[in-house]
Design a protein that fits this description.
11 strands; single chain; 9 helices; 7-stranded parallel sheet; 2 domains; alpha/beta; Alpha/beta knot; elongated; 60s Ribosomal Protein L30, Chain: A
Length: 242
């Protein structure tokens, strides 16, 4: 059992796997419209709900950023096989690979954008990445429950296996000559995002089929990795819808 907190994260779990939610606790002092709407969802799912003081919720969640909502949930089995996930994809897969994203707030924001952009799979190396934790789940606003996130032993090897499946691997690099708008995002593709500042590791960069840059027209030299991922993914959305 683990705590899950926040309206979006708990609401997403109630929608995706209500049987895994053992109990929901809410702030006894909150009676606003948002809380009432949330309580109706909990009751519709048939989950026990209890009202507690805010300090008890903070103790359960381990943080005071719970929005007045904490749930005790069963650990869900995370997707653990890249190929099993891709075998279930209809059409051209869109995969996001993260090389060195260790900040849970960045990962949460990236997963939220990945969900919105229809990404089928997110992969990251086990030794240079953050896993799904309560902070990631809260920032992701439910996307941590919907986007398959697979942590792989060797990212370079996994990218090579994706290339063998016919996916075109595109990495973001500020020194690239092509920009993200020149790439063909309609094909089966992998977008590789490096860590903010450090970028992709050398072997990861050399594995890419194509390097892309985001045009920077102002004084700043780079974007936050979650913002940069959003720019690239929504170019993919634009092309795939067109």
């Amino acid at each position: 059992m683990k705590p899950l907190y926040g309206f979006h994260a708990v609401g997403a779990r109630l929608r995706a796997a209500p049987a895994s939610v053992r109990a929901v606790y809410v702030d006894a002092a909150r009676r606003d419209a948002r809380m009432q709407q949330f309580l109706r969802k909990v009751q519709a799912a048939g989950v026990q709900v209890s009202a507690l003081p805010a300090d008890r919720l903070t103790a359960l969640a381990g943080t005071d950023r719970h929005q007045g909502v904490v749930a005790q949930v069963e650990e869900r089995l995370q997707a653990h096989d890249v190929h099993a996930v891709l075998d279930g994809v209809q059409g051209a897969p869109l995969v996001l690979a993260l090389d060195g994203v260790t900040d849970p707030h960045n990962l949460g924001a990236i997963l939220r954008t990945a969900d919105a952009a229809g990404v089928h799979l997110v992969i990251a190396p086990k030794d240079r990445a953050v896993g799904i934790n309560p902070t990631v789940a809260r920032v992701a606003s439910g996307a941590a429950e919907t986007v398959p996130y697979v942590m792989v032993t060797n990212l370079v090897r996994s990218l090579g296996e994706l290339q063998e499946r016919g996916l075109w691997v595109m990495g973001t690099d500020e020194s690239a000559t092509d920009d993200v708008y020149a790439a063909d995002w309609r094909q089966a593709a992998v977008l590789v995002m490096g860590a903010e500042g450090a970028g992709m590791r050398r072997l990861v960069r050399e594995t890419c089929d194509q390097l892309l840059r985001i045009p920077m027209l102002g004084a700043v030299e780079s974007l936050n990795v979650s913002v940069a991922a959003g720019v690239c993914l929504y170019e993919a959305v634009r092309q795939r819808r067109g």
